[in-house]
Amino acid sequence: MTQDLTVDIAEGRLNIRVAAIIQQDDKILVSQWLNGTISLVGGRVALGETTQAAISREVAEETGLIVETASLCAMIENFFKYDDTFYHEFLYVYDVTTNVLEFDQSAPDFESQDILWLPISESASVQPEILSDVVRDKRDQILHLVNQEANLVS
C-alpha cells in the first residue's frame, strides 16, 4: 500500500487531502465520525496519486460508490489544531457524480464512520466550516480559499 501524503514535522503536520461534494436533491453525502465531527466523504492523497484518482478511491473505500465524474471546484488551504497538533492542510474539493446513490456496506472503510445524507441547509456543521460556502455556491470557476482556524506559534 502506498503511503499517505501526511508528513510530520517538528512544528506540526502537513496533509494533502480530497473531499467530495455528492449531492442528491437538497442533501449532501457526509461522514460522521465517532467524536461527532462531520466531514465530506474523502481522505488523504497517496504518494504518486493524483487528487482526482484519490477522490475516486476514497469515495469507493468509504461508500462503495463508483465515481462517474469529478470536477475540481475548490482548493482550500486549511490551518487548524487537532489534539494539540498544528495542521497545514491542502484540501482539494471535487463536485462528484456517482453511478448510483445506494451505499455498499461492505466497502473497506464503511464501518469506521456513519455515512449519511445531510440537508444543505445544515452544511455549516461540516468541517472545516468554510466548506459550507463551497457546497452552497459551486461556481463555474475553481475557488481558492484559506481557512485560518489556528496559527503556528513560534
From TrEMBL:
GO terms of molecular function: hydrolase activity
Cofactor: Mg(2+)
Domain Nudix hydrolase residue range list: 11-139
Pfam name, any one: NUDIX
Key words of the record: Hydrolase
UniProt cross-references to InterPro entries, sorted A to Z: NUDIX_hydrolase-like_dom_sf, NUDIX_hydrolase_CS, NUDIX_hydrolase_dom
Origin: domain of life: Bacteria
Name the record gives this protein: ADP-ribose pyrophosphatase YjhB, NUDIX family
